[in-house]
């Protein structure tokens, strides 16, 4: 007769004869499907762009299928250091190495870039 090995948390023993039947699990696990693509929006003034911004953009490009860096155009605050067009140009040059990162601009409210991203 064949011997089979039974291990538990407290002991291990050899028993003669066939092994016991496998346990039957009646629990059915339903997994949800992954969305087709995950789009993230990173909004801010980026005036000026810093290494902290670049670090978050790099991390976001690895985490999400698509990352949109959206520049806030806020005319009510004090004059910006760089114009919105200059900030967009700088960001485009920096994020050019990430194929899934795009640059956009918006005025308040922030729903604009969300509507454009979702089509």
Question: Based on CA inertia axes, which overall geometry fits?
Answer: elongated
State the major sheet. 3 strands, parallel
* Separate helix tally: 3
Residue-averaged pLDDT: 75
Rg estimate, integer Å: 28 Å
Q: Strand order of the main beta sheet, please?
A: 3-4-5
Structural class of the secondary elements? alpha/beta
What is the fold named in CATH at topology level of the domain at 39-118? Rossmann fold
Strand content: 15-25%
Q: CATH architecture of the domain at 39-118, please?
A: 3-Layer(aba) Sandwich
Tags for this model:
119 residues; alpha/beta; 3-stranded parallel sheet; two-stranded antiparallel sheet; 28% helix; elongated; disordered N terminus
Describe the SSE topology.
Blueprint: E1 3-7, E2 12-16, E3 39-44, H1 51-63, E4 66-72, H2 84-95, E5 101-106, H3 111-118
Parallel strand pairs: 3-4, 4-5
Antiparallel strand pairs: 1-2
Short description:
This protein has 119 residues and is an alpha/beta fold. The chain has a domain at 39-118: HUPs (Rossmann fold), CATH 3.40.50.
